[in-house]
Write a structure and sequence with these properties.
Layout: H1 3-18, E1 32-34, E2 37-39, E3 45-49, E4 56-61, H2 65-83, H3 87-98, H4 105-116, H5 120-140, E5 147-149, E6 155-163, E7 166-170, H6 176-189, E8 193-197, H7 204-214, E9 223-225, H8 230-238, E10 245-249, H9 252-264, E11 269-272, E12 278-281, H10 287-299, E13 311-315, H11 319-331, H12 351-366, E14 370-373, E15 393-396, H13 403-406, E16 413-419, H14 422-429, E17 437-441, H15 445-454, E18 459-462, E19 481-482, H16 487-492, E20 495-503
Parallel strand pairs: 7-8, 7-10, 8-9, 10-11, 12-13, 12-17, 13-16, 15-16, 17-18
Antiparallel strand pairs: 1-2, 3-4, 5-6, 6-20, 11-19, 14-15
This protein binds nicotinamide-adenine-dinucleotide.
Nicotinamide-adenine-dinucleotide (NAD) binds near residues 238 and 274.
């Protein structure tokens, strides 16, 4: 066994013990938070691999359907208790609850770094986001005051925003803590109970967050985390009768299954899916900024980011110069161990993803694309030859119809495509089935807004990339999904408008059919 792997196993054991997730008997760790209890799964064993070494990290059990039933029952009961509180009390409790993270931030970041293989500095940032999301949505608890509609009859008509009851949430492995808090916070602020299933590849951090936060003053059972595979625990969650809304963050293929499962029970869904975002650089852009932006857009999180700027569209007269500069900068990125403070890019998270990305690069080469830099496993890494590392990769000489240019890679791989003019840039940007994000680099403000308005993408940056905040709505067009997260739009996904009509006339006017003397 690689010494680094032994170190990672020891670190994980310490962190799980610290958070109370390991059993004294030495059995598999607790991987579920149900009705205020840490619970070991009852299903098959799931093995986690260390992304930095490719060796086994630990094993835990799939939750299984009995535990899921318990989780839904607990959330159903606790939701009633939660809604019996005043709105301002719910806000106060959410604010108090998130303070329970204090003093645990570093351990939480380390836990995520070991299991997800993400650089420790990125994980610290993610913990900060968890706090920000709960604080933001705590503020909404007592501000969901509905509306009065000026109907043309003698009625007082008002609209209430009513919680669904219990919502089911499913999250991916690339940003487990971020996506957990991103969906938990608005769901409970809107008055729902929750059962959330994280990715089977990153099970623990959501359990820790839920435990800390719920124990900080929320009703026992309001937040439940069940861990297991998509086809087992995930499918059981999407098909459960007690779940009234589904919110899914993940790939388009799984998103379709989730929406189908919801549709069969007439349960609505929000889908936050993948992307193939276009980062458009015009020849009047500040090139230093555009190059730095292109780097951050694709190589942060080793490209395992839904909004990754994986298509770099560059105006033809500056194409060679920009490709050369982005490639040079890419080759200088500090790729290394997740735990190392100096690391800017860690490994890919899992073997399947590593194979997927490297196979896509090989198919691109076979189709005639040119790898300008990267494309292979970097040599001389401390994790040895079996970690899922891939050097930052820039690919040119691609045709927009090639797989590498139109399908999501979800790795540190950017394709560079030249364009002649604004019209071609817009056409290329909108030419994939996705529509999650995009960026425009130019010093011409009129052009910036003109192009942004024509991009079919849920988020557009002008002379920037990857700025996101819980205050601003986020989501996709087309195969990048539907519904919104963050901001008021994200909160509204967790409520149903209820319209209430009160007769205020001196004489009641109950009409047969639609007609009424007053309409
Ligand atoms: P994935 O679709 O493989 O898995 C996501 C989750 O779905 C996991 O928890 C998995 O267990 C579960 N799942 C899989 N099949 C299921 C089924 N039949 N029923 C119920 N649950 C099931 O995605 P991934 O590989 O974990 O994540 C990467 C993808 O997520 C990328 O496409 C990325 O772009 C996307 N993503 C999108 C956003 C966004 O906000 N738009 C954010 C992060 C990641």
């Amino acid at each position: 066994m690689n010494a680094l792997n032994t170190q990672a196993q020891q670190a994980l054991r310490r962190l799980l013990a610290q958070f109370g997730l390991s059993l004294e008997a030495g059995d598999m760790p607790c991987s579920n938070w149900i009705d205020g209890d840490l619970v070991t799964g009852q299903g098959d064993a799931i093995t986690l691999t260390n992304p930095a070494t490719g060796e086994e990290l630990t094993t835990y059990r799939d939750a299984g359907t009995d535990l899921l039933d318990r989780a839904v029952a607990a959330a159903t009961r606790a939701q009633v208790e939660w809604m019996a509180l005043t709105a301002s009390e719910r806000g106060r409790r959410m604010n108090a609850a998130v303070r329970r993270l204090e003093g645990h931030e570093e351990d939480l970041a380390q836990l995520e770094s070991v299991v997800a293989g993400k650089p420790i500095r990125d994980c610290r940032g993610e913990v900060g986001k968890v706090r920000e999301m709960f604080e933001y949505y705590a503020g909404w608890c007592d501000k969901q005051h509905g509306e009065v509609i000026p109907v043309p009859t003698s009625h007082l008509n008002y609209v209430r925003h009513v919680p669904f009851g219990v919502v089911g949430q499913i999250t991916p492995w690339n940003a487990p803590m971020f996506t957990c808090a991103w969906q938990l916070a608005p769901a409970i602020a809107a008055g729902n109970g929750v059962v959330l299933k994280p990715s089977e590849l990153t099970p623990f951090s959501s359990v820790v967050i839920a435990r800390l936060i719920e124990s900080g003053g929320l009703p026992q059972g309001l937040i439940n985390i069940v861990n297991g595979l998509g086809p087992t625990t995930g499918a059981a969650l999407t098909g459960h009768d007690g779940i009234r809304k589904l919110v899914f963050v993940g790939s388009p293929d799984s998103g379709r299954l989730i929406a189908e499962a919801g549709a069969r029970r007439l349960v609505p869904s929000v889908l936050e899916l993948g992307g193939k975002s276009a980062n458009i650089v015009f020849d009047d852009a500040r090139i230093d900024d555009a190059v730095a932006g292109a780097q951050a857009a694709i190589f942060a999180a080793a490209g395992q980011s839904c909004v990754a700027g994986s298509r770099l569209l560059i105006q033809r007269d500056i194409f060679d110069a920009v490709v050369e500069r982005v490639s040079r900068a890419a080759s200088q990125i500090a790729v290394g161990l997740p735990a190392d403070e100096a690391t800017r890019m860690g490994p890919l998270q899992n073997a399947r993803q590593f194979e997927r990305v490297t196979n896509m690069i090989e198919r691109a080469k076979a189709a005639g694309a040119r790898v300008v830099t990267g494309g292979t496993r970097p040599t001389g890494l401390p994790g040895g030859a079996n970690g899922y590392y891939l050097a930052p990769t820039v690919i040119a000489d691609v045709d927009a119809s090639m797989e590498i240019a139109c399908e999501e890679v979800f790795g540190p791989v950017v394709v560079a495509l030249p364009f002649e003019d604004e019209a071609e840039a817009i056409r290329l940007a909108n030419s994939t089935r996705f529509g999650l994000a995009g960026a425009v680099w130019t010093q011409d403000p009129a052009r910036a807004h003109r192009v942004a308005a024509q991009l079919r993408a849920g988020t557009v940056w002008i002379n920037s990339y990857k700025a996101i905040n819980v205050m601003s709505p986020f989501g996709g067009f087309r195969d990048s999904g539907f519904g919104r997260s963050s901001g008021l739009d994200g909160l509204r996904e967790y409520t149903i408008p209820q319209s209430v009509w009160v007769e205020t006339g001196a004489e009641a006017s109950v009409a047969m059919g639609y007609g009424s003397g007053q309409v």
